[in-house]
Amino acid sequence: MVVLDYDLSSVVNDVDFYEAFCKALREIRKECISFNEFSQLLESDLLKEHISQLTCEEVFWRRFRQLYFSRHSFPRRGLREFLVLMKNLNVKVVVISGRETHSDYIWWDLRRHGLDELVDDVVTMHDLNTLFLREEFPFDKSPLINYVKRKHGVLEKFACIGDYVADYYSCVKSGGVFIGIGSAVRLGVLKKAGVQFTAMDFYEVLLRLRELRLLE
Q1: For the chain, how many structural domains are there in total?
Q2: Helix, strand, coil tally for the chain in percent (to 5)
Q3: With contact defined as beta carbons under 8 Å apart, do 192 and 167 qualify?
Q4: Domain that holds residue 185
Q5: What are phi and psi of 184, to 5 degrees?
Q6: For residue 170, what are the contacts with CB-CB under 8 A and spacing of at least 6?
Q7: Helix (H, G, I), strand (E, B) or coil at 197
Q8: What is the C-alpha to C-alpha distance for residues 159 and 178, in angstroms, rounded to an integer?
Q9: 201: Cβ–Cβ under 8 A, 6 or more apart, which residues?
Q10: Collapsed DSSP state (helix, strand, coil) of residue 96
Q11: Where are the beta strands (DSSP E) in the chain?
Q12: Are 72 and 197 in contact (CB under 8 A)?
């Protein structure tokens, strides 16, 4: 099985992130920052520091997750070829998103890109409530990863691909091998957190999987 994070990992959609971020700020009557400043903070993983100076982080990010929708996404380089290969190798591909919106929204986006038939399952933080699961830290996906492991009968090693430090912690906590994906700056943040294997696109992800002997 391969577990894919969606936003900023499988697809590039910084503008969608920015729109949800600004909406959440406006709801607490705070002014949004410029897109350039937002991008710099996002790449350097410093958005949480910015929010902590304005309001309660937990409340803000929970609302942000509920406002995050896809409108401007496009697949990261090599995603389609990666998914086709996984399908041909009978590898389960599951998208686990940090959004707290219904999985139908991600299925809609996958259909828009013609990728829905190449993905086996989609779950989001919205499913935590319906499955009576609980996250131990913000954006903790480990309960959902363990759920899909049981659902799809995964007993062997599996890989997770994501762009966020919480994706890494969630994967390792669930017994998976993590591959960080994103820009050079983003990968630098992940490496500082302890991530060993990184890729800038899904062609490089395939190389990492071969190096890890997870892809024969």
Answers
A1: 2
A2: 50, 15, 40
A3: no
A4: 2-12+73-211
A5: -60, -40
A6: 139, 140, 141, 142, 145, 160
A7: strand
A8: 6
A9: 76, 77, 78, 181
A10: strand
A11: 2-4, 11-12, 74-75, 93-97, 121-124, 159-162, 177-181, 197-199
A12: no
Q: Among 67, 82, 105, which residue terminates a domain?
A: 67
Among positive and negative, which fits the CA dihedral 190, 169, 86, 94?
negative
Give the separation between CA 126 and CA 90, rounded to whole angstroms.
28
Neighbours of 6 (CB within 10 A): 23
Nearest Cα neighbor of 140 from 113, 170, 115 is: 170
Residues 184 and 90 in one domain: yes
Q: Give me the chain's average pLDDT, please.
A: 96
Q: How far apart are CA 183 and CA 186, in angstroms?
A: 5
Q: Each residue of 68-120: pLDDT tens digit?
A: 998 999 999 999 999 999 999 999 999 999 999 999 999 999 999 999 999 99
Does the predicted TM-score (pTM) go above 0.90? yes
Q: Which two tokens stand for residue 120?
A: 């086996």
What is the sign, positive or negative, of the torsion defined by CA atoms of 122, 157, 141, 187?
negative
- 156 pLDDT tier (thresholds 50, 70, 90): confident
Rounded Cα–Cα distance for residues 67 and 16 (Å) = 10
Tell me the C-alpha to C-alpha distance, in Å, between residue 140 and each of 34, 60, 212.
Answer: 28, 16, 24
29 and 118 co-located in one domain: no
The residue count of the chain comes to 216
> Does residue 216 belong to any structural domain of this protein?
no
Please list the residues that pair with 95 across neighbouring strands: 4, 122
Task: Choose among 18, 48, 40: nearest CA to 185.
Answer: 40
**Through-space distance between the first and last CA atoms of the chain, rounded to whole angstroms:** 13
